[in-house]
Amino acid sequence: MTELELRQYLSNVGLVGIPAQFHKFSGGLHNSVWRVDTGDRRLVAKVFAAPTAGTLFPNLPEKEADALRRLEGLDVAPNLVGFWPEVKLLVYDYVDGEMWDGDVVGAAHLLLRKEVADPTGFRRVSLTCEDILSEGDEFFVRCKNKPKEFRPHPVAISVPEKLSLIHTDVGVNLVGSGGGLRLIDWQCPAVGDICEDIYSFLSPAFQILGERPQLSGEQIKSFWDTLDRPDLARRYSKLRAAFAWRFAGYCAWRAEILDDTDICGRYRFALSAELKYMEDFV
């Protein structure tokens, strides 16, 4: 959808008038996203590309709309304005503020607020070490150049008593700070383990791919102190190596299939960091 077509569509559904200004965001790998300024209101309009197969992060417009409805009023995600499935167009209120700047306390509080949301009806993701490791194996099988590091041993772990609505890609999608921190881009939500969202926040690879410094030991300690959930800390310690193996496989695969040399280099750097993160717990 072109900007002109988007302007016409939003006008037809009564969301914008003639003075509206459109600014297309750069950097999106899949979807086309605009900020729309109309009167005293700012919106985000997202036009979804076709689904991508064989990835950790499927592009699911209907499920993003569902997730935003579930999260309404929890101070976790943007407010949904509307979703038009016939044109794969999602509109939500723009979140004021800068991209996340290191506020680990705010991130911990946000993840706790998110736990109230009902996760039923979303796709279910892997919950055991062996299943998560097997997904990593599948990514490495696709690669010509496989790392020499050994596969972590699976650790026996039970399914969590409470399943959560998880984002699955927290690291690069936080905007604002403090109580105003919000988690955006919910196009791949799932029913799963909150530890997966914790991982996608703490993981060095996710920070690298977001072009931010890796979290320091002090920041990680502050996050866990704020979360104040020793049960989750123990569970995370058992799952961390498996999550890291899987995401290392994903980074290795992406580094081989993408055309942009800069992005491929970032994925290779993320791969190295993730293998180190895995080894710390193997």
Structural class by SSE content: alpha+beta
Largest sheet: spatial strand order: 1-2-3-5-4
Question: At the third CATH level, what is the topology name of the largest domain?
Answer: Aminoglycoside 3'-phosphotransferase, Chain: A, domain 2
Superfamily (CATH H level) name of the largest domain: Aminoglycoside phosphotransferase (APH), C-terminal lobe
User: How many separate domains make up the residues?
Assistant: 2
Count of DSSP H/I helices: 9
Distance between the termini: 47 Å
Elements, N to C (H/E): HEEEHEEHHEEEEHHHHH
Q: What average pLDDT do the residues reach? A: 92
Radius of gyration: 19 Å
Strand proportion, as a percent range, falls in: 5-15%
Contiguous uncertain segments of 5+ residues: none
Question: What's the CATH architecture name of the largest domain?
Answer: Alpha-Beta Complex
Helix content: 40-55%
Shape, per Cα inertia axes: globular
Work out the number of β strands. 9
Largest sheet: 5 strands, antiparallel
CATH class of the largest domain, named Alpha Beta
Description:
- Helices cover 42% and strands 13% of the residues.
- The protein has 282 residues and is an alpha+beta fold.
- Strands 1-2-3-5-4 form a five-stranded antiparallel beta sheet, covered by helices on one side. A two-stranded antiparallel ribbon has the order 6-9.
- It has helices spanning 3-12, 61-71, 104-114, 129-141, 194-202, 204-209, 217-227, 230-257, 261-279; strands spanning 21-24, 32-38, 41-47, 80-84, 89-93, 164-166, 174-175, 182-183, 190-192.
- It folds into two domains: 3-93, Phosphorylase Kinase, domain 1 (2-Layer Sandwich), CATH 3.30.200.20; 104-279, Aminoglycoside 3'-phosphotransferase, Chain: A, domain 2, CATH 3.90.1200.10.
- Strand 2 (32-38) and strand 3 (41-47) form a beta hairpin.
- It is built from nine helices and nine strands.
- The N and C termini lie far apart (47 Å).
